[in-house]
Amino acid sequence: MISRRIIPCLDVRAGKLTKGIKFKGNVDIGDPVEAARQYYEQGADEIVFYDITASSDKRDIMIDVVRRVAETIFIPFSVGGGVRNLEDMRKVIGAGAEKVSVNSAAVENPQIITQGAKAFGSQCIVLGMDVKKVEKSEKTPSGYEIVVEGGRVYTGIDALWWAKEAENLGAGEICLNSIDADGTQDGYEIKLTKLISENVKIPVIASGGAGKPEHLAEVLTAGKADAALIASMVHYKTYTIAGIKQFLTERKIKVRNIW
User: How many domains does the chain have?
Assistant: First the structure.
């Protein structure tokens, strides 16, 4: 059985670690470099870094912060936000990231997925999907729609179709974020996670809604996710990664142990 991964997410705005609810009301809560170091020492399997306003501000990602994080940790590190082309990917990987996440740019130009996979390997290319629950329609038969530009722009693209399309284009992994659950700490969107996980062959990282270890257990079993992204529950020091892993181990969910 493959070990499930626990992945802290660092949302960064203007160089500061920040957290919001449903992509709104963000509050700065610390230093992303220091947070990355702490989570690495606690036993995180990977770190995800999002420059959350780079796309909407039409600016480049903060490479200096990426480089400082990469110099601090020795586990896989994924970076997204403001990655618009192959050169941006090259800069991010050159700064020390193992993976690049594309979201808004991939919707605008799907070939960026294929170009990145050919240049760096599919294992380096993560499709970030920000998803909102909507009424089922001819355009969105799954009842889930892709939203871009940091949750600001509805695309009319069906989430299930896009996940399959991205896999065909060469994405090696999907980071699936429910806007409805984001920051609520009420639990992941299990139905959405299961829908995507059952219909693609590449790993799916569940994101949005983690508030307690039971939520991770649910999404890794009922939701069939390969990994779980966490933020608030560790940012506010309610839980530690080691404690979360202990909880999952006691429930027979295989994780990469640190003890």
Answer: 1
Structural domain contains residue 259: no
pLDDT string in tens for the chain (259-residue length): 689 999 999 887 766 776 656 555 455 567 888 899 999 999 999 999 888 555 445 545 678 888 988 999 999 999 988 888 999 999 999 999 999 999 989 999 999 999 999 999 999 999 999 999 999 999 999 999 999 987 889 999 999 999 999 999 999 999 999 999 988 899 999 999 999 999 999 999 999 999 999 999 999 999 999 999 999 899 889 999 999 999 999 999 999 875 5
Inside any domain, residue 255: no
CATH number of the domain within which 205 lies: 3.20.20.70
3-state secondary structure string across the chain:
CCCEEEEEEEEEECCEEEEEECCEEEEEEECHHHHHHHHHHHCCCCEEEEECCCCCCCCCCCHHHHHHHHCCCCCCEEEECCCCCHHHHHHHHHCCCCEEEECHHHHHCCHHHHHHHHHHCHHHEEEEEEEEECCCCCCCCCCEEEEECCCCEEEEEEHHHHHHHHHHHCCCEEEEEECCCCCCCCCCCHHHHHHHHHHCCCCEEEECCCCCHHHHHHHHHCCCCCEEEECHHHHCCCCCHHHHHHHHHHCCCCECCCC
Which sequence positions are flagged as catalytic? 11, 130
Residue 230 lies in a domain: yes
Quote the pTM value: 0.91
